[in-house]
């Protein structure tokens, strides 16, 4: 029961960490595009950002779960083979007592496991932000962005655009043959139609 209470106490800290990672990713993504995303984000966008990033990309979920599973399997192997020389050397290198019984060893391995999972998420979010931002910037500069939507404004005119992102207040997009990011309030857009890519 105490273990469950500790997990419940750490959940808000974990969510705050995810929010920070989401902010970091969005800031890094929009920085090369010349947009300070924090000026255009509401509290709701900030709170939902990490969860929407995780859920909208199934590959991202698979990567996070597979790495967490690998960490768990590695921890299980260390506990199972704690009597082996290679495990004892590894634990001594990390200043852990290899003579602990299996239950105590499991508790001692939780903080490094949490640190590794946190570092994995940090690397993933920062890497995604850097990769996506640089990719969009390079394609904008070379005019090779492929339009993925047709945006219709109040005038009824449809314009092919590359949609970078949407939050609860603004659309962020690049028009065909342009090199600047446009930011439009959601109320100014009538329709957004997906371009069929066959």
UniProtKB/TrEMBL annotation:
It comes from the Bacteria. The keyword Membrane applies. Keywords: Membrane, Transmembrane, Transmembrane helix. The chain crosses the membrane at residues 15-38, 59-81, 109-130. This is Uncharacterized protein.
């Amino acid at each position: 029961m105490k273990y469950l209470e500790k997990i419940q106490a750490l959940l808000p800290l974990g969510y705050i960490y995810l929010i920070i990672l989401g902010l970091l990713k969005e800031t890094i993504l929009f920085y090369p595009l010349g947009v300070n995303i924090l000026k255009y984000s509401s509290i709701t966008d900030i709170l939902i950002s990490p969860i929407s990033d995780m859920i909208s990309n199934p590959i991202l979920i698979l990567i996070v779960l597979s790495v967490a599973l690998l960490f768990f399997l590695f921890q299980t192997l260390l506990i199972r083979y704690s009597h082996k020389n290679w495990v004892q050397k590894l634990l001594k290198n990390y200043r852990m007592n290899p003579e602990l019984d299996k239950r105590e060893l499991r508790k001692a391995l939780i903080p490094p496991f949490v640190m590794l999972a946190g570092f994995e998420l940090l690397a993933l979010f920062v890497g995604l932000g850097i990769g996506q931002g640089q990719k969009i910037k390079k394609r904008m500069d070379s005019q090779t962005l492929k339009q993925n939507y047709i945006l219709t404004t109040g005038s009824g005119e449809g314009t092919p655009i590359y949609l970078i992102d949407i939050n609860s207040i603004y659309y962020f997009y690049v028009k065909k043959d342009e090199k600047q990011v446009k930011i439009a309030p959601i109320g100014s857009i009538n329709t957004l139609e997906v371009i069929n890519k066959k």
